[in-house]
């Protein structure tokens, strides 16, 4: 009879000791996906027949961009920063490098960089019903931006379309792209032929150097980069059941129950 009792108690003790281990194993199975930070090669989303005609000029713009970056500090005195308003023409003074920033959107600020010997007049409007993003991308803003330099863009020293992420935004735009709307295709084009794409880590700024800024522009990020919070959201659920104790009904009484069974077994063996 004593042997049967000892066997029964030993079986119960084994079951109790095994249960928390199973719960712990399940809680550690949570995976935290991370958004990709590696840069990617831009792939054309339409056929080559609709690539803007500025292909050769955009390719040659890289050298000028490099010189501008090296001489950025030296030319700081000649740099002008001004605030623009959508739908309102604004003068871009000649001679200096001019940065025109527009009111912040949901996630960032649209900016135009310009330099030329003579003045130009810039107007930027928002398209509240833009075309769909290219396949595999999503729009950072619910609008696109239509840029119009009244006197034309021929012969300008510098033309850049920029997007600066808001300080409170959690989006990752380091792998993003700035696309140009092609009227012939009725779609946004993301391709190196559109311009020289850059990302400035210090400013959290995405920009593209082009040969002709006039046109409609959209700011896009890969679908994977649009949901970085998905992996981070797993942490609270894991904390809700630390070690499996909170997830076990009556978890607080488990240590006492184990000790009682151990004491009883020792008493029977004596």
TrEMBL record:
Parts forming coiled coils: none
Composition-biased stretches (Gly residues): 59-69
Give the Acidic residues compositional bias ranges: 70-81
Q: Where is the signal peptide?
A: 1-18
Q: Where is this region: Disordered?
A: 53-81, 228-257
Q: Does the keyword Signal apply?
A: yes
Sorted alphabetically, which keywords does the UniProt record give? Signal
Q: What is this protein called?
A: Accumulation-associated protein
Q: Look up and give the organism this protein is from.
A: Fusarium vanettenii (strain ATCC MYA-4622 / CBS 123669 / FGSC 9596 / NRRL 45880 / 77-13-4)
- Supply the source organism's classification: Eukaryota, Fungi, Dikarya, Ascomycota, Pezizomycotina
């Amino acid at each position: 009879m004593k042997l049967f009792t000892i066997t029964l108690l030993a079986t119960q003790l084994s079951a109790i000791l095994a249960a928390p281990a199973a719960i712990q194993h399940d809680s550690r199975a949570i995976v935290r996906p991370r958004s990709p930070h590696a840069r990617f090669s831009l792939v054309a989303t339409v056929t080559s027949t609709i690539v803007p005609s500025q292909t050769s000029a955009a390719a040659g713009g890289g050298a000028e961009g490099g010189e501008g970056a090296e001489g950025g500090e030296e030319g700081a005195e000649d740099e002008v920063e001004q605030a623009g308003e959508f739908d309102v023409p604004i003068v871009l003074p000649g001679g200096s490098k001019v940065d025109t920033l527009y009111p912040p959107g949901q996630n960032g600020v649209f900016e135009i960089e310009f330099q030329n010997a003579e003045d130009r007049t810039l107007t930027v409007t928002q398209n509240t019903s833009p075309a769909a993003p290219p396949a595999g991308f999503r729009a950072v803003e619910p609008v696109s931006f239509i840029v119009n330099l009244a006197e034309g863009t021929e012969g300008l020293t510098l033309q850049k379309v920029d997007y600066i992420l808001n300080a409170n935004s959690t989006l990752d735009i380091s792998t993003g792209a700035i696309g140009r709307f092609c009227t012939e295709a009725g779609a946004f084009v993301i391709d190196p032929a559109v311009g020289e794409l850059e990302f400035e880590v210090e400013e959290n700024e995405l920009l593209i150097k082009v040969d002709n800024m006039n046109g409609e522009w959209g700011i896009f990020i890969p679908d994977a980069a649009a949901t970085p919070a998905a992996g981070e959201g797993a942490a609270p659920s894991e904390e809700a059941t630390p070690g499996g104790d909170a997830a076990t009904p009556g978890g607080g009484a488990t240590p006492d129950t184990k000790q009682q069974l151990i004491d009883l077994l020792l008493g029977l063996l004596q």
